[in-house]
Amino acid sequence: MLLKITLIQASLAIGPAIAASVSCPADLPFSCSNTTAVEDLCCFNAPGGDVLLTVFWDTAPSTGPSDSWTIHGLWPDNCDGSYEQYCDQKRQYTNISAILQEKALCTLKTMQTYWKDYTGDDESFWEHEFGKHGTCMSTLNPECYDNYQPTEEVADYFTRAVSLFKTLPTYDWLAAAGIVPSSTQTYTLAAIQGALTAHHGHNAIIRCSGSTLNELWYHFQVKGSVQSGTFKAVDPVGSGSTCPSSGIKYLPKYAAPTTTTTTTTTASSTGTAISVPTGTPGALAGKGYVKVQPDGFMISTGNWYRASGTPATYTAASNSDGETFTLKTSKGPCQVLADASLSCAADFTPSDFGYNGTYITYNGAATFYAASTPSDQDKGVVFTTEQVVSLEMYWQPLL
Ligand SMILES: *[C@@H]1O[C@H](CO)[C@@H](O)[C@H](O)[C@H]1NC(C)=O
Ligand SMILES: *[C@@H]1O[C@H](CO)[C@@H](O)[C@H](O)[C@H]1NC(C)=O
Ligand SMILES: *[C@@H]1O[C@H](CO)[C@@H](O)[C@H](O)[C@H]1NC(C)=O
């Protein structure tokens, strides 16, 4: 476990190694603890003064190191547990990696290990977190910066999230109490809460999918700005834990697929027999998943992903010939590139695909290829020219 910081208050008092946008008076109350209105919202996070650092334990598919939780986000909740979202349409940035590459390289490097999207699309995940939550932190507003340079606050948001995450070595805290990932052992909610509270000083919100532990929400209040103020752990407000009181599974990451049992609560699971939907040959149109035979599905980059999870939504648009169609994802149009690999990205020229009633085709052929079968977490590059592994792609329309 790389992240071991025990002196929480000391490390936070120092603050992240970034220029403070404003120097805030020392006598301000902590957010959500004021008894009268505080005027300067550049030094006082409001209304989102209940700041949550949320972390994931992803096992289906697994993300990040097998001995560390990963970051979900840093969220400004209102003091009553409600929250604002998407507070600034002008700051829905689509270049978080590029911004951090320039302004906060260390933060970016940490995020590449510890802030992972379960479909492999970290950039989109980071865009979502900043656009939805980061824009609602009053102390990160552009007017809080002297000589504001566009996107300056992005580095502050992610650097603070990462620095706070480093003070929360969840895996170690649980392990110290004998709570370790296991495919057979289960734990009680009280034991998990006790292990966390012993270190955090306050309860955390403990969340499960069914009876499988998968997320924690740590609550804080801030004195001063989010970017350079002091964080203090507090009791949660708002929605409560979602786990059963006992029988909680804390599954190992990257377990061999054969040891994973299919749960009835998940709609998609690998390893079940595939029944490929059939339809009328011709152009596909509308939204759907592109599933792969023998298994897995296509993600937004146009790569093959075999672990369980939610496939990317593809949009098919019929060409005027009524026979062929184009595909695009949140990344952009999907194109077969000069090296015969399939990829979806902004500014790509969409290629024409066909549908033979069962499978998606390219130049009339329903067989696509990969250099190897991707293992869990790997993204397989799909080619239209012959390689070692053959695959077909089929369309599962979304209503
Ligand atoms: C705390 O300060 C915020 C921001 O000025 C204000 O909206 C809120 O009403 C204040 N709370 C109290 C209890 O005065
Ligand atoms: C990121 O995008 C913003 C706005 O869209 C732009 O102002 C900024 O220059 C871009 N930064 C980088 C590093 O590409
Ligand atoms: C579609 O292509 C596959 C693979 O070549 C083939 O097995 C199948 O019969 C074709 N379906 C139709 C309806 O032509």
Automatic annotation (TrEMBL):
<dbReference type="InterPro" id="IPR033130">
    <property type="entry name" value="RNase_T2_His_AS_2"/>
</dbReference>
<feature type="domain" description="RNase T2-like C-terminal">
    <location>
        <begin position="284"/>
        <end position="395"/>
    </location>
</feature>
<dbReference type="Pfam" id="PF25488">
    <property type="entry name" value="RNaseT2L_C"/>
</dbReference>
<keyword id="KW-0255">Endonuclease</keyword>
<keyword id="KW-0732">Signal</keyword>
<keyword id="KW-0926">Vacuole</keyword>
<feature type="active site">
    <location>
        <position position="133"/>
    </location>
</feature>
<keyword id="KW-0963">Cytoplasm</keyword>
<feature type="active site">
    <location>
        <position position="72"/>
    </location>
</feature>
<dbReference type="GO" id="GO:0006401">
    <property type="term" value="P:RNA catabolic process"/>
</dbReference>
<dbReference type="GO" id="GO:0005576">
    <property type="term" value="C:extracellular region"/>
</dbReference>
<dbReference type="Pfam" id="PF00445">
    <property type="entry name" value="Ribonuclease_T2"/>
</dbReference>
<dbReference type="GO" id="GO:0033897">
    <property type="term" value="F:ribonuclease T2 activity"/>
</dbReference>
<keyword id="KW-1015">Disulfide bond</keyword>
<dbReference type="InterPro" id="IPR036430">
    <property type="entry name" value="RNase_T2-like_sf"/>
</dbReference>
<dbReference type="GO" id="GO:0016787">
    <property type="term" value="F:hydrolase activity"/>
</dbReference>
<dbReference type="InterPro" id="IPR001568">
    <property type="entry name" value="RNase_T2-like"/>
</dbReference>
<comment type="function">
    <text>Rnase which modulates cell survival under stress conditions. Released from the vacuole to the cytoplasm during stress to promote tRNA and rRNA cleavage and to activate separately a downstream pathway that promotes cell death. Involved in cell size, vacuolar morphology and growth at high temperatures and high salt concentration.</text>
</comment>
<dbReference type="GO" id="GO:0003723">
    <property type="term" value="F:RNA binding"/>
</dbReference>
<dbReference type="InterPro" id="IPR057328">
    <property type="entry name" value="RNaseT2L_C"/>
</dbReference>
<dbReference type="InterPro" id="IPR018188">
    <property type="entry name" value="RNase_T2_His_AS_1"/>
</dbReference>
<keyword id="KW-0378">Hydrolase</keyword>
<dbReference type="GO" id="GO:0005775">
    <property type="term" value="C:vacuolar lumen"/>
</dbReference>
<dbReference type="InterPro" id="IPR033697">
    <property type="entry name" value="Ribonuclease_T2_eukaryotic"/>
</dbReference>
<comment type="similarity">
    <text>Belongs to the RNase T2 family.</text>
</comment>
<keyword id="KW-0325">Glycoprotein</keyword>
<feature type="signal peptide">
    <location>
        <begin position="1"/>
        <end position="19"/>
    </location>
</feature>
<feature type="active site">
    <location>
        <position position="129"/>
    </location>
</feature>
<keyword id="KW-0540">Nuclease</keyword>
<protein>
    <recommendedName>
        <fullName>Ribonuclease T2-like</fullName>
        <ecNumber>4.6.1.19</ecNumber>
    </recommendedName>
</protein>
<keyword id="KW-0456">Lyase</keyword>
